[in-house]
Amino acid sequence: MTRVAIVHDYLTQRGGAERVALAMARAFPGAPVYTSLYDKQSTFPEFQAIDVRPTWLNRIALLRGRHRLALPLLAPAFSATTVDADVVLCSTSGWAHGIGTSSPKVVYCHTPARWLYDGHRYLGGRIGIGALSLAMLRPSLVRWDRQSARSARRYLANSNVVKDRIRKVYGIEADVLPPPPALLPEGHQRPPDEVLEPGFFLCVARLLPYKNVDAVVEAFHALTTERLVVVGTGPEARRLASRASARVSFAGAVDDDELRWLYANCSGVVAASFEDYGLTPLEAASFGKPAVVLRAGGFLDTVDEGSTGLFFAQPDAGSIGGTVRACASRAWDERTLRGHAERFSQQRFAERLREVVRDEAERC
Q: In terms of CATH, what superfamily is 201-342?
């Protein structure tokens, strides 16, 4: 049997990349997961049943709670960590592909590091200690990042837009392997503590500048009959809440039982970010719900216009609001939506991933 080791950037939050790491672990039961930082309270509880092996950085409690402070240390920490396996599978948007190993390395790239190659959008134009530190470290980190990319035997991209970005940044041709929707209707549902009437629109995103949640919130100021529930945490939380109208609710961090209830009881999801992969519309489709999304990035791979959702052209309140109205005014076929989501199943993802790993193991 092929020995597989999985490597992920850090397990300190609940996001799409962490769900993909879980999907990889399901594809290779028993495989250890190496990571820089692991906070079992702030990431998905399913990792507690997996052999997670963090680096020495994990002994610093402050870094577990604020992983961005570890930026100067992450590259050397991964480079100094060695992994012995037949094939090493890296799930990364920044660090894990630099893991030390003499084994074949397959990189599943969520995107080349945004903070290196798209820093203005990632930081939202803010100037602070973090931005200044990144500016000082950037030349050496770019060299490390590109050298780490060249150490891989094979690259996989989660979407066509990321495939293009990998070619531009690294000069590497990647194969596209879309990840599955990780949150499915099967499972317990529980409403959040706040009393919510069904029929709201749902925005699920980390509250970071490039997610453009501020534009979504502003759009609902002018929508007199529609309501919005925002799920997620991040540095933008306080600013967004201060600007929101009474028709917008902030649920903060929710567990999977609560998120299932929110998907099941919403009218649709809204997303205005330049996403590397459009995961949220797929999760919504599995619940029979449509999506209102920006015509860009990974959403182009996961939304079929007119049958599973609608696109807006720009991440501004006017474009978003008009498209939300159009979504609310039409009937959507749940069977079509659920069938679309099934095309991106865990089974298909796992089978293709095992095939890639088997091919690389046989080339040794």
A: Glycogen Phosphorylase B; (3.40.50.2000)
